[in-house]
Amino acid sequence: MELRWLASFVVVAEELHFARAADRLHLAPSALSAQIRALEAHLGVRLIDRGRRARPALTGAGRLFLPEAERTLAQVSRAEAVGRRAGRGELGHAEIAYVASAAFSGIVTGILASSASGGDLTVGVRELETPAQLEALAAGDIDVGFLRWRPAYPPGVTATVLLTEEVVLAVPEAGPAAAHESVPAAALREERFVAPYFDEEYGCRDQILQVSEHGGFTPEIAPPVRDYIAALTLVGGGRGVALVPDSLRRVRIPGVAYRQLADVRPTTRLVGAYRKGETSPAVRGVIRRLREAAALAVTVS
């Protein structure tokens, strides 16, 4: 049974006049009659009584068949709408991960908000450190990651820079470094540096070495912590200083003060990472918003 037969039958049932129904359907009356006859032959029952003198009328079978035909056409229309919306990325699901520091930049929430507008996209979010995100992307466990820049990514994964931030110094409010409006690198000679995952090859390690080299000393490093929030907690407890992205100034932890560095300006980059050749329309929609945000990327200092 063809959908066009159902559509033609419904219009004839509404008009009860073959010529008017043919005009609505942009068909010749003979072609419309042929479609109705084909539908009746397929079902093995007469649906329309074509009296020679009276107007066409629905038979008993036709009256029973009409609401079912209408429901079928309505369901087909809904299915087409869902398919088109899914193809535009307005429907579906995406799994997203982010490093804790990215949440304070406003980039992640902005992309999520723009992805949600005008659609029914569902999103799962979780916090993951950068190395775990890269593994999860490569394995297909997440679809998009917001993480700190790396010079290389796993095969099949690419990244777009979203934000370049100045790195600032988090110090204990009662410590000597807090007395400076901006802190010279040499003034950190006696300080202990707290950093997340210092055993990583990139990121915090490079920034600490850049500052210590500029200040002419070998840095003392505390045992690594899980993330920047843990580092700030130790700083607030007077256990050291930390180099953090500028956006973490929004985090108000008792005992922590933020200062710029006076004579060296390390930076850190927040990137959006995703798989190359992504096929999911929903995920592609998030990636499209991510690229739009990247086109407006700024340096925050």
State the separation between the terminal residues, measured CA to CA: 67 Å
Q: Given the structure, what is the number of helices?
A: 9
Per CATH, the class of the largest domain reads Alpha Beta
**Overall helicity:** 25-40%
Provide the number of structural domains.
3
CATH fold group of the largest domain? D-Maltodextrin-Binding Protein, domain 2
What does this structure look like?
The chain is an alpha/beta fold and 301 residues long. The protein has 3 domains: 3-87, Winged helix-like DNA-binding domain superfamily/Winged helix DNA-binding domain (Arc Repressor Mutant, subunit A, Orthogonal Bundle); 91-158 and 272-295, Periplasmic binding protein-like II (D-Maltodextrin-Binding Protein, domain 2, 3-Layer(aba) Sandwich), CATH 3.40.190; 163-268, 3-Layer(aba) Sandwich (D-Maltodextrin-Binding Protein, domain 2), CATH 3.40.190.10. It is built from 9 helices and 13 strands. The protein has helices at residues 3-15, 18-25, 29-43, 60-87, 107-116, 130-139, 204-215, 228-236, 281-295; strands at 48-49, 57-58, 91-98, 120-127, 144-148, 157-172, 182-183, 192-193, 220-221, 242-245, 256-261, 267-275, 299-300. Strands 3, 4, 5, 6, 7, 10, 11, 12 and 13 form a 9-stranded mixed sheet that branches. Strands 1-2 form a two-stranded antiparallel sheet. A two-stranded parallel ribbon has the order 8-9. Helix 2 (18-25) packs across helix 3 (29-43). The mean pLDDT is 86.
